[in-house]
What we know:
The structure holds two protein chains of two kinds. By secondary structure, chain A is mainly alpha-helical. Chain A folds into three domains: 20-49, no CATH class; 52-203 and 211-312, no CATH class; 318-424, no CATH class. Helices cover 62% and strands 2% of the residues of chain A. Chain A has 16 helices and four strands. Chain A has a two-stranded antiparallel sheet with strand order 1-4. Chain A has a two-stranded antiparallel ribbon with strand order 2-3. The mean pLDDT of chain A is 86. By secondary structure, chain B is an all-alpha fold. Chain B has a domain at 35-258. Chain B contains 14 helices and two strands; from the N terminus they run ααααααββαααααααα. Chain B has helices at 2-12, 15-47, 54-71, 76-79, 84-111, 119-140, 166-185, 189-199, 201-206, 211-233, 247-252, 254-261, 266-287, 297-312; strands at 156-159, 162-165. A two-stranded antiparallel ribbon of chain B has the order 1-2. The model of chain B is unreliable at 1-11 (pLDDT under 50).
Amino acid sequence: xxxxxxxxxxxxxxxxxxxxxxxxxxxxxxxxxxxxxxxxxxxxxxxxxxxxxxxxxxxxxxxxxxxxxxxxxxxxxxxxxxxxxxxxxxxxxxxxxxxxxxxxxxxxxxxxxxxxxxxxxxxxxxxxxxxxxxxxxxxxxxxxxxxxxxxxxxxxxxxxxxxxxxxxxxxxxxxxxxxxxxxxxxxxxxxxxxxxxxxxxxxxxxxxxxxxxxxxxxxxxxxxxxxxxxxxxxxxxxxxxxxxxxxxxxxxxxxxxxxxxxxxxxxxxxxxxxxxxxxxxxxxxxxxxxxxxxxxxxxxxxxxxxxxxxxxxxxxxxxxxxxxxxxxxxxxxxxxxxxxxxxxxxxxxxxxxxxxxxxxxxxxxxxxxxxxxxxxxxxxxxxxxxxxxxxxxxxxxxxxxxxxxxxxxxxxxxxxxxxxxxxx
Amino acid sequence: xxxxxxxxxxxxxxxxxxxxxxxxxxxxxxxxxxxxxxxxxxxxxxxxxxxxxxxxxxxxxxxxxxxxxxxxxxxxxxxxxxxxxxxxxxxxxxxxxxxxxxxxxxxxxxxxxxxxxxxxxxxxxxxxxxxxxxxxxxxxxxxxxxxxxxxxxxxxxxxxxxxxxxxxxxxxxxxxxxxxxxxxxxxxxxxxxxxxxxxxxxxxxxxxxxxxxxxxxxxxxxxxxxxxxxxxxxxxxxxxxxxxxxxxxxxxxxxxxxxxxxxxxxxxxxxxxxxxxxxxxxxxxxxxxxxxxxxxxxxxxxxxxxxxxxxxxxxxxxxxxxxxxx
Lengths: 424, 326
């Protein structure tokens, strides 16, 4: 009987984080890959360690932090929210007021990261608690509109609170990801500067082709963000299988029935908003810090839609789905860019795929065939616009064809091979 | 110089005149919101779909008018010397019909397969549609603004102290006309079918009503009304420069109007639209000079109003309370 899929002989093993051997092995492998990639040491995937791709990987991981929070709110607790970018902004601006440098027109206390990062999450959580009573009273799609309103009200606030957000068109610099003991002290650990790994890790050099004595700042940021993602992911996973997570699922599935069974609805919704906003706040603070300088327009509806799309495309209510969804959505635009560049090169060199390039790329007003133009203006969508359209198309196609998202596809593939060669 | 003159004009007004002028342009703005909200509510009532792409469809309709009336000169190029008002009206009708057709296509391709899915999943589809339509419209506009070539421009009517733009009068007239037309439509055989479907889809189906056709009709009406709203949002005084990338976001402010009136109330859409419009203009008139409020406060007044209403009445002023079962 051992090794049968989905056979659990006791409740404890079914609730385990990694219940099967194959899961343990694949997680361990993933961990090895995750450590080797930024060191340019992973065969075939070494290119991901280059600074250009590393920035993208970091962005995906940071998005994953905030998306984990939205997944708890939308996927587990069933509360529709379009206001995630608002909570991220609250976190980011808390971080910059506590950790940023004071200027002539902007506030800043210059406190170290171990103060501003948790504070960013807590401030966002506090705002989440303030919003929660509305969520208790207003349900379903009306709640979507309330959270949509938060985004617009937030943008008005950030545009006008110059001392917090900096100028409407210039923004202000964010504190860097570096741990110091107190303000104005040299950082003990910096996650942004190029150079050798931190002093206490320098002698470690097991693999001869790995050069950890010279690491890019992006790779260091990667390790910090990766650790945060792993911790927050485990927290979310644990939360889902405890009393709180079960009460959220009950509220999501049938709120009145949940109340009848003794689940406190108002309490559950408040918890969901607070914890989801905590994730958003931390994610927003790290995002702003890594980007370095952010204008108020960044925290717009599009950002919120991106997160809802990550949750839905990945698979609502699943942790693995969040990771799949973020990497899928962050990497697709870059892949489109690379493919377009390759097709343009094919057209220029009259390569074997030149016909495909001619079909896809529109060169001028007289070229009536093609979707993407290489210029920002003129006929045809620019690559940037094409990516937004593609994003919309992906949302629609996924929701129509595969409502369970990428995670659902994975389950289908798994089930197919489980019974192979029998199809049932 | 114009700005200085205008502010001098405002200062010279006595309070009641200032109030009445603000009320007039508030109602005109509210009429735009009401047109947008009406289309939204009709789609929601008949098909249970929250159409987040409404603003994008409105901007698309406005772009079509700009294209027909200025760039392509349709139908002016065939009729030659007809009055500009008539030829512009024909362009508008053409654009509205075309947008309505686009609405039918959208419904058939993306909404019909989602029948029976959770409401939020369908709402998410319309968010995807919003991105697609908005981006394509912006690309057609080359990310600039484009005038609609309307015959009234910035001309105003002055009755004593009362000043109102000619387009504003037209907007209100169009809203009244649309309201009457809808009231008539809901009494016709097709309109009764729409109402029956809104009440209970399965029961309507059992009575021999083609629910699919009702869906198509509702989307056609909704998209057409969105286009009308978008057009009047893109002519002076509201959209002085014409239709541009911001038009879709302007139309987003019709959502609070819908929610205040209640998602499924036609009467509420008109009332909510007018209320939001008046509130926004009043805030701009009386709170515009309050320095600590900063810039753009009038723009979020609709959202603040919506939240206040929702806390008191969770289903809007005229919305049907959802019956919840265990």
